[in-house]
Amino acid sequence: MKTARPTPDFSRFKPSEALLKQREWKSRIMAGVIGLAFVVAMIPLISLLWTTIARGVKRLNLNFLAFNMSGVIGGMPTPSGGHGGIEHAIIGTLEVTLGAMLISVPVGLMCAIYLTEYARGSKFAKAISLLVNVMSGIPSIVAGLFAFSLFAILMGPGVSNGFEGSVALSILMIPTVVNSSVEMLRIVPDDLREASYALGVTKSRTIVKVVLRTALPGIVSGVILAIARVIGETAPLLMTAGFIVTTNWNLFSGQMTTLPVFVYQEYSKMSVTCPPNAGTGCVASIPSERSWAAALVLIAIVLVLNLIGRLVQRLFSVEASR
Amino acid sequence: MANISETSGVGQVVPAVAGQVSATLGAPVGGGPDGRRDDLDFSNAKPSKHSQDKIFHAVAVGCGALILVSLGAVVLFLLLRAWPIFAGPQAKTSAVFASLSGGKAHGFWQYVGPLVFGTVVIATLALAIAFFVAVGVALFITFYARKRIQTVLNYVVDLLAAIPSVIYGLWGALVLVPATYPFWNWVSVHLGWIPLFAGPAANPPRTVASAAVILAIMIMPIITSMTRDIFAATPRLNQEAALALGATKWEMIKLTALPFAKSGMVSASMLALGRALGETMAVMMVLSPGMTYSWHWLQASKSQTIAANIAAQYPEADSLGVSALIATGLVLFVITFVVNLLARRITRKGGAQ
């Protein structure tokens, strides 16, 4: 026996064509707006990279890399055949950054170990991790002021050396190292730790030999990225490491120039005046050209460091996920 | 016979095994005398390993505490070094402020006021410019770009974030600022009736507006990379449910991704704001400084930020002048500290939900 079922009138719920079209168009317009935002965001990047490369290669040669700025007079060529260079700035950058690394990697790593291995979720640990996060937002100039005040109070006024710059940079670097290391240590499965404890291995040995070894690639890449971040810092080094034209190999005594500071100093000179009888060898716009060339070197260093960091991360994260 | 000897043989083995078992079980309790058992006895090895453990633990705790100490030290040493400007004789300090501000200020708050104003205005303006573009880029990467392009774009965003600020400053001062004059001029001519854009536009436009644009470019990757991660974490089921109900792509994003990412987007922009507040080099290289409470964004020499002011005045300041600058640095520290704290609070709340 058949009973007549009530058939709902679906046509009543059917949206009108106009509404459908309107929604469709809205979606398309938003896609367009989002795409436009992307294009707008890419313009500065392309422009920045393009100008730096185009203007930087002009003065970037072996002579530029191999000589410092001593004996450079105005726009006149130096006896070596160039117009001064950044050898001293490269050495300064490497030493100051290395100093910062030697301070911040052990401290940051041990702090991360404390947060993940010893005090997971305790109140003290929570306070520390909150402060680490807040510390990662310290303006770089405040870090510079801190290092300056510290050395002025402890060592007397007027102290300016590379190590002071390292201290300032390590304030900026420690939070980055802690955060990336904590993330990597958290990924290490607890099974590994338990297996190690079950074999009777002590906690410190488990951490050093099992946990750290497993997380090592991630930590290394985090450290490299942290270095890439601080190597371009300018403001804190302006007031701590100072600026000289000659090469200084001693991190602990005397001022040191770093690449970002060099870029800024040459930028602020802008141009030099050439005496009328200087001839063709004198280049009036040489400071700005040197500035662009040094900027190109700096960008290259930062990008290579970033690439290495990401490469390490990628190469080894595949291994870990297997 | 053979049968019996076999059974007796079996019978002999059983007690021997039992004896051995009882011996092994008994040994740790009684402390067996033979050398092999000593391997199992940890009592000899324990003390040295324990002390090693304790040292390691102590170092770890120490490094954790060092974070607290160093933050405290930042405040303490800045205060110590800034103290002379507060404690010094009135006449001397007011002379210092007058020389630092070109005669406009005679007390600390008078000096730092316009700087705080400039810092906050420029950073907020930068955030307002950067936020929508950054979220747009994040949406583009997560929902519109293809998989293979996604990874490339992620690299590009990280690359943007990695470029040193001094290079942004160099590019901003020598390329961007001259190039934007026609635009600013157009704005001042056509929108000049709004007080904010009152002309004449400065040429070269080393103005608040230009500095904000540079800062916006610099903080955009921060917002993008954070919001991108949150968008990527939007529950797939929600997205599919929205699509299955007939939502268009934009409706899907509006219904699932944006509500999900709301708190994350807010905290990302707070972090970016913190970065913009403290940015030094780019502002110093682009902005023509001034010490006023002016809302005219297109005119030069109106405002200055704390950070850029410190870096610019520092080389020529005497001992008391440096104290004054460090005092302004403390103010900057407090502002960014509060902003970052708020950002983290919001993140944490969002994470707990």
Brief digest:
With 322 residues, chain A is an all-alpha fold.
What can you see in these coordinates?
With about 325 residues, chain A is mainly α. Chain A has eleven helices and no strands. Chain A has helices spanning about 15-55, 60-65, 85-120, 125-135, 140-155, 160-185, 190-200, 205-230, 235-240, 260-270, 285-320. Chain B has about 350 residues and is an all-alpha fold. Chain B has 13 helices and no strands. In chain B, helix 3 (about 45-85) crosses helix 13 (about 320-350) and helix 7 (about 165-190) crosses helix 8 (about 210-230). Residues about 1-45 of chain B have low confidence and may be disordered. The interface between A and B is large, with 92 and 91 residues.
**How many alpha or pi helices of chain A?**
11
The H-and-E topology of chain B, N to C, reads as HHHHHHHHHHHHH
The radius of gyration of chain A is 28 Å
Global shape of chain B: flat
Helix content of chain B: over 70%
Q: What average pLDDT do the residues of chain B reach?
A: 81
Determine Rg of chain B (CA atoms, Å): 33 Å
Work out the number of β strands of chain B.
Answer: 0
Structural class by secondary-structure content of chain B? mainly alpha
What are the secondary-structure elements of chain A, in order, as H or E? HHHHHHHHHHH
